[in-house]
Write a structure and sequence with these properties.
The protein has 259 residues and is an all-alpha fold. It has one domain. It has ten helices and no strands. The chain starts with 15 loop residues before the first helix and ends with a helix. InterPro entries: Rce1/LyrA-like_dom.
Length: 259
């Protein structure tokens, strides 16, 4: 099949109720997994740093398969390749430069917003549950906290297998967020006009109902990634930046394990 360019205007648009369901279902599944299943496993004696990636990987695998199936079916209907429908459109140097600069700005704003997280936690009354791993707790500095306090009841040092588990989990996280929320869902929102990327970005940030204490950081980066995909019609830049950020997280955890 010829790799015909995917025209976003040709894809079936979702109405407001369908859009709500499209965001609400994965949010509800994630909330159930991280706020009910995770604490149950933690209470049963499984360390948070082990339970979290296991639960996340199972849920993320399902939400990777779903958009691939949906996009493959739609690609056949539109007479285009799956690659085109996945919004894997090649970009020229100018488009890459534009995208990377915007995403770096988004990362910088999100990084700067980290200082607002403690204030947001105080104002909102949110708190980080003890059954969440340390790397999702913005009040914990893993480099200055004794390693025994980072993972109570679990010997982090020397747990090399955990690096592989985290790699799988964080890569699946990239696939889900780029394939489902941006490659599959965003083109189905362009009927909303210029507000499509704005609504997509905000709704994606609130998809993280299981960790709303990170909202000050999630919103600017979510908006910037949605905007870049909307403007370029490609998920490649968002995928690349996402991969870089998650790789740094893996490296940080690996350092604690190996050092």
């Amino acid at each position: 099949m010829a790799d015909t360019q995917f025209n976003w205007a040709q894809t079936k648009q979702l109405n407001p109720v369908q859009l709500f369901i499209a965001f609400a279902v994965p949010s509800a599944v994630a909330f159930t997994g991280f706020r009910f299943v995770l604490p149950a496993l933690y209470a049963g004696g499984m360390p948070a740093i082990v339970a979290w990636p296991i639960i996340a990987s199972i849920m993320l695998l399902c939400f990777t398969i779903v958009p691939l199936w949906l996009m493959n079916r739609e690609a056949k209907e539109l007479g285009i390749s799956l690659k085109s429908r996945m919004c894997l459109k090649p970009l020229d140097r100018r488009q890459w430069l534009f995208s990377v600069l915007l995403l770096i700005v988004g990362l910088a704003v999100a990084g700067g917003a980290a200082s607002a997280v403690p204030l947001w936690i105080d104002i909102s009354g949110l708190s980080v549950p003890e059954y969440f791993p340390f790397f999702l707790n913005p009040t914990v500095d893993p480099m200055s906290t004794p390693i025994a306090e980072l993972t109570p009841g679990f010997e982090l040092k020397g747990a090399y297998w955990l690096i592989g588990l985290m790699v799988v989990t964080l890569f699946l996280n990239i696939l889900v967020e780029e394939l489902y929320f941006r490659a599959w869902l965003l083109p189905k929102m362009i009927g909303l006009g210029a507000a499509a990327w704005l609504i997509n970005g905000i709704a994606f940030a609130f998809y993280h109902t299981f960790q709303l204490w990170l909202l000050p950081q999630l919103i600017p980066l979510s908006l910037m990634m949605a905007f870049v995909v909307y403007k370029t019609r490609s998920i490649w830049p968002a995928f690349a930046i996402h991969l870089l950020v998650n790789s740094l997280n893996v490296v940080a955890i690996a350092y604690l394990i190996v050092a």
